[in-house]
Specification:
Serine Threonine Protein Phosphatase 5, Tetratricopeptide repeat; two-stranded antiparallel ribbon
């Protein structure tokens, strides 16, 4: 009992001294109490606060850390988090405290907070050049959020810093699998190239890189990679076929024929005689001067190989002719589409705001509406021209919008001029092109709809932005 009374007396004395601003003496009194009860964490927090008021940051931080560590030992994690945050307000550069806070967040299952705090720790470790410790933190982050690409990239880079190239490449390969669903071709290409720079014999990566280049229309880059990885390509019928066709595109017919001969030999080694005959036929189509020699080789493959060879040559030539026709048609369509787009853009520039032709001006004693007949007719002509152009491009919504503008302008025209039978007939003709009736042209005045804002990009005129890989 005397000890309890003594403790209460000391606390009262310490509080009185603190209220009087005698902080040093107040701390001394509190320290006497702590000697009697060192586990009184609330009192330690009070002492730490007094140290802060005295600007004794070292003592304050040390006392706060003692309290936070005790809370952690007793599994009072939320209280520990609060105290660690107090410490970081005093000195945010304390690496060990930042790390303890991150570990606490992870232990509490607060993934977002944990990752954020681990990122702070990682940045500090990177600045200090502590590569091994940085690697450990990067591994923790990926363990928490394995599907986040940027975290895995940073982990791969950390492995590289530590000289562990194999683990870095393993992470890049995992990243490839993730980005095949959500990444861009540019991101994948960068990863493929990075992996193949160290693992040139990775068949899957060579195949995937060539396929990605081909899909993007970058067949010359695909061919260059095939030439670099020719050992792999010569064992892959699909890539070898593509390689031959790429050479043919460059008018290197002899080389194309040679690659098809390599393909035939590959099929023979695999006992795929029919495919071998077709490959020899393709080689002859590109190098007809070799037909007699190749035929002798083919006839040794099977009893009816000669007949199959002749039929395969005919089929190959027909396929090649169809392919050339399709490519020519595609190019014609591309040129036509570009011309239509330019025409659309020119028409859009010419289109003016409909309300500008019929303005309301302040008059006296009443408002007077002035109708510019020529301007309205010009607006109607432009709108109808756009209707036709949009219909040719199957842009039905845009065509209906322009038809509506023409109708509104025509109704405005009727307020200042007699009915124009020619324009009305053209509007009715455009309306008839839609499956459903458009808004009728009436003599009742209507408000003109706002014209397309200046600078609005028309459909099909957008340009895709290339997204860089982070």
């Amino acid at each position: 009992m005397p000890e309890v009374l003594n403790k209460e007396k000391l606390l009262e004395q310490a509080k009185l001294l603190a209220d009087q601003g005698k902080l040093d003496r107040a701390v001394q009194e509190y320290q006497k109490v702590l000697q009697m009860d060192p586990k009184d964490l609330r009192l330690k927090l009070r002492v730490a606060e007094l140290y802060v008021k005295q600007k004794k940051m070292t003592e304050a931080i040390q006392t706060y850390q003692e309290v936070a560590d005790s809370y952690c030992e007793d599994a009072f994690y939320l209280k520990a988090v609060t105290v660690y945050k107090n410490i970081l307000r005093l000195n945010p550069s304390l690496l060990d405290v930042n790390r303890k806070l991150a570990d606490l967040y992870e232990k509490m299952g607060l993934a977002t907070d944990a990752i954020h705090q681990y990122q702070i720790v990682a940045n500090m470790l990177e600045q200090k050049g502590m590569d091994k410790e940085l690697l450990e933190v990067r591994e923790k982050i990926v363990a928490i959020a394995p599907e986040t690409s940027v975290h895995r990239i940073r982990l791969a880079e950390a492995y590289q810093l530590c000289g562990d190239e194999d683990k870095a490449l393993n992470e890049y390969e995992v990243l490839v699998q993730q980005l095949r669903e959500s990444g861009t071709p540019e991101q994948l290409i960068e990863l493929y190239e990075k992996i193949l720079a160290h693992r040139p014999d990775n068949v899957e990566m060579v195949r995937a890189l060539c396929a990605t280049y081909t899909k993007m229309g970058e067949w010359k880059k695909a061919l260059k990679r095939m030439e670099t990885s020719q050992t792999i390509v010569l064992q892959d019928p699909e890539m070898l076929t593509q390689m031959a066709e790429f050479y043919a595109r460059q008018n290197q017919m002899a080389t194309a024929g040679e690659k098809y001969s390599d393909l035939a030999e590959l099929y023979i080694a695999r006992q795929e005689i029919e495919n071998a005959i077709k490959a020899y036929a393709a080689s002859v189509v590109y190098t007809p001067e070799e037909e007699a020699h190749v035929k002798e080789v083919v006839e040794q493959l099977s009893p009816n190989a000669g007949d199959l060879f002749g039929k395969a040559i005919e089929e190959r030539r027909a396929w090649l002719a169809q392919k050339e026709a399709d490519e020519e048609a595609a190019e014609t369509a591309r040129v036509a589409n570009e011309a239509a787009t330019k025409e659309l853009e020119a028409a859009a520039v010419a289109t003016k705001s409909i309300p500008a032709a019929a303005q309301v001006v302040e008059g006296s004693p009443a408002k007077v509406k002035i109708v510019d007949v020529k301007a309205l007719k010009r607006d109607i002509e432009s709108a109808l021209q756009l209707v036709v152009t949009y219909l040719q491009m199957s842009l039905m919504d845009e065509a209906k919008e322009e038809l509506h503008k023409a109708e509104v302008a025509y109704n405005s025209l009727l307020q200042g001029a007699a009915e124009d039978a020619t324009l009305k007939a053209r509007i009715d003709d455009c309306r008839a092109k839609f499956s459903g009736p458009a808004k009728p042209v009436s003599s009742a005045p209507q408000k003109a709809s706002p014209a397309r804002p200046s600078g609005t990009r028309l459909p099909g005129a957008e340009k895709k932005k290339r997204i860089s890989f982070v």
